[in-house]
Amino acid sequence: MEIGYEAKKRTLVRAISEIELRLGVKRLDSLIKGVCYALLALGGIFMVVPFIWMIATSLKPGHEIFNFTFLPQAPTIDNYRLVIFETPFPRWYLNSFIVAIISTLSVAFFDTLAGYTLAKYDFPGHKIIFIGILSTLMVPTEMLLIPWYIMSVNLKWANTYWGIVFPGVITATGIFLMKQFMEGIPNDLIDAARIDGLSEFGIFWRIAVPLVKPALAALCIFNFLGNWNAFIWPLIVTDTKEMYTLPVGLAFFSGESNYDAEWHLIMTGATLSVAPLLLVFFIFQRQIIKGIALSGLKG
């Protein structure tokens, strides 16, 4: 009887110990999660506060800019009226939109076509071509600025939309991304389409492209954002205010004597320039997150 009692006692003690261990692990997990959420919230605050400050500053009159107040004491939309109607800002907005749209459409078509060709056609030298394309990623963009500019001047592309766009009509990153996704399409599906009499371009356009829409959407979104924010090349290749893009125009606000220290106008222009990016993010948020996840899996 004593032996049975001792065995039950030991079993009960072990059970209590396991329960306490599990509760301790759960408490530790809860503590770690709480710390992580607190750090994320702190990081979010650090990222959001400057954005809110930018919007608040855009609503301040010029004499309030250097006051130690976060929110405007006398909010006004005169800054927006001044920027929109009395500066070339609408033209810069249009220029950025044209450049971003042309580049995005070009990259969406040519990168997808090149990725499909390299993934699904076994022609001599296709591996060497792919390695050559990837090797261009190791060349810093700064080293290409002078050759691009010389070519633009010689071909009379300087200070034109095509001069701004042509370095980004096709990208090595986009080709690599689309090739990785195209390799996931079953070859049997493509062979079946050939047997049914579909042309090679028809197979690409009607079979392959619909199957890689998540990757294509991510590529288009990131390319649009990148071209919208591009600064160095548009600054170099344009020499008139009418051809400036938004980033170059904002730099003009902060650098020209007429707009020196006009921080309320600079913040107003920055707020207006960010609006399309926020719109793209809110509309395509799911595609952006999915594209990042899929890019990581395929990479």
Which short descriptors sum up this protein?
single chain, 299 residues, mainly alpha, MetI-like fold, 76% helix
Would you kindly provide a written description of the structure presented here, covering whatever features stand out?
It is a single chain. The protein has two domains: 2-58; 78-298, MetI-like (MetI-like fold, Orthogonal Bundle), CATH 1.10.3720. The model has no long low-confidence stretch (mean pLDDT 84). Helix 3 packs across helix 7 (172-182), helix 8 (187-195) packs antiparallel against helix 9 and helix 10 (213-228) crosses helix 14. The protein is flat and about 70 Å long. With 299 residues, the chain is mainly alpha-helical. It contains 14 helices and no strands. It is 76% helix and 0% strand. The chain has helices at residues 2-58, 78-86, 89-120, 126-135, 141-154, 161-165, 172-182, 187-195, 200-211, 213-228, 232-237, 246-255, 263-283, 285-298.
